Amino acid sequence: MASGKVFSLENRLKQNDDWEFFISGRDDWMGAMYYHLMEDEYKGEKQYLLFGFHRFDEMENIKMVDVLYFDKKGEPVFGKEIFKKKVENARDIIKTRIVLKYSVDSYVGLHYNESMGMIIHDYLIRSISMGNNEGMSLVSDGSLVGYEKKDRYWEYIDKIYTQILDEAPRPKPVLDKRNKNLFGDKP
Fold it and tell me: Are 103 and 127 within 8 A, CB to CB?
């Protein structure tokens, strides 16, 4: 909306299991520092994808993709049901935003890859955290997942890179054609 109107936003971010499913206004905004803004459109309706970071507490960070659009009154609305994950033999899961809550011990990337036309992020798994009193938190396992735009929805894509090698990549074979094993013994 190009009116130039400025809105005051109230950060009401609290522990909530429904972050990915609620829609909020400027009085209950899920606060973040945005590092990328992307325009998105479907059938003439404009919305903006806001890629953000939030330091949740001493032990966990949050990265997110929130959706911003303006209602008929020109008020900002955060969250829109545009992120879809297909589930076999069940109803699809449709989210209003992508939220990745992870341990401060881990790096998690979340960005739009223009050449692939996808939102990409690290896949998170449970792990024992160095500083978390509860013992478990989420960390990246090194693999990537993402969302690809299909009509109205950004659809979840599991395992973006699925290349499996028969052998580990090595510039020089370690023990090939040698008369001794790793410990110096003859085979």
Answer: yes
